[in-house]
């Protein structure tokens, strides 16, 4: 931007100089004409004034129109030719030729903007091409975590590649197909497509095909890896298209339309069907988009917002489930801790994650009951579980400043001998805004030997301020830094800065929301020592459901 601005200034200075030179030549030509006509400056003053005026000059300042006199000064100059000297007045050249200034500046700005867009596009392409080379170099120069942050000695035969297996996070796909041309009357469409789907998706155990009264086909594919939903959707369209070509060789891909809804176990089937119909309608309306997919979660927030239900009642009636998301050590494969996650069992929307229902629980009473319920369930689990694994809990922001909650938590410690295995997560944004009001809460947790985790960290800027928290256990990277980090050098740079600063302050740095192998490999190369996310495993109902790999 600075270079572009400097170029614009230099261009306008150059243009002004050229136009001023033009004025000087015109004035000199006037002096030459007066000399050649042998006009007397006194006797022929009127003739000279008319001649001068025709070229945009004036003999006297009063003869010039005063439209801009309040904020622009007239320029005066003496033009000479042999024995003739003319003292003339005129407006600045940039004002007289303002239309030329504006036109040329617009051309320059337009060219600069187009050039910037072109450069930006080429830079992105170059960045994509160079990414594998950058990652390879980072693998060579990455530093090992400091000794204070390293985990216990790795067990025998443990390898991070074990964690790179098939993801256990699954969705189900429900699809509706439409084709323009009918099949032969003697074809058993139902059995034909059952055979087609069975051959095309033999790796999936649970699948079904149903012929609809309208003549279309409904296909259900169960337990599809969440990271391959789009891949399976495109593959489904291809399988159906190839099957249709056997009987309708004149069909094009545009003649086969597919609507898909991906959902999880427990979702309302009526809602799934309506979403799939909507997706199919959108695909049929498009001339070029033959596949359209709507995820089941697409409507959850909207339906909750429109619903008059009080979600407080689901918690009160214990219509919920508590899951635990394991955090894996990337060197040994061991589980370092779990994060407690609550899911509401909604009567029509299935299991709702906290991000869907917490925004609809705005009262102090609701969120107090929510966190009390989670802590009591975690307490019950820890008392029944052997071992020393820690569990982290995301407290609602309102409860960090609720005295009633902290009085209740102190009371719970009388018969809770495992509270030192608890860690409470606090968003970095909330800490930075309210850290002066949190000293009492931090002292309370320190007295109880419970830990604190700073969550959603976006930069290394404020890490030094956490040094004053005696019982801080770790920091967790913001989800926005994790998603697609394998393709973003900017995100990699920020994460590397956080890890370096965290190592200086003896803060372990963890990654959350890891969904792909490339994201995980990049994070490990950068120095992240532990990670969690759907790539490793879905949240589990019992801590004992998953054990360290061996």
CATH superfamily of the largest domain: EAL domain
- Average pLDDT level: 77
How many alpha or pi helices? Answer: 17
Q: Strand content of the residues, in percent?
A: 15-25%
Strand count, sense and barrel status of the largest sheet are: 8 strands, mixed, barrel
Number of domains: 3
How many individual β-strands?
Answer: 16
Would you identify the regions where 5 or more consecutive residues have pLDDT less than 50? 128-168, 543-550
**Overall form:** flat
CATH class of the largest domain: Alpha Beta
Distance between the termini: 56 Å
**Global Rg:** 37 Å
Class by SSE composition: alpha/beta
Strand order of the largest sheet: 8-9-11-12-13-14-15-16
Notes on the protein architecture:
This is EAL domain-containing protein. Pfam families: EAL (PF00563). The chain folds into three domains: about 100 residues, no CATH class; about 130 residues, Reverse transcriptase/Diguanylate cyclase domain (Alpha-Beta Plaits); about 240 residues, TIM Barrel (Alpha-Beta Barrel). About 40% of the residues lie in helices and about 20% in strands. Strands 8-9-11-12-13-14-15-16 form an eight-stranded mixed barrel, surrounded by five helices. By secondary structure, it is of the alpha/beta class. Helix 5 crosses helix 6. It starts with a helix and ends in a 19-residue tail after the last strand. A hairpin with a 5-residue loop joins strand 8 and strand 9. The chain is flat.
Describe the structure concisely for a colleague.
This protein is an alpha/beta fold.
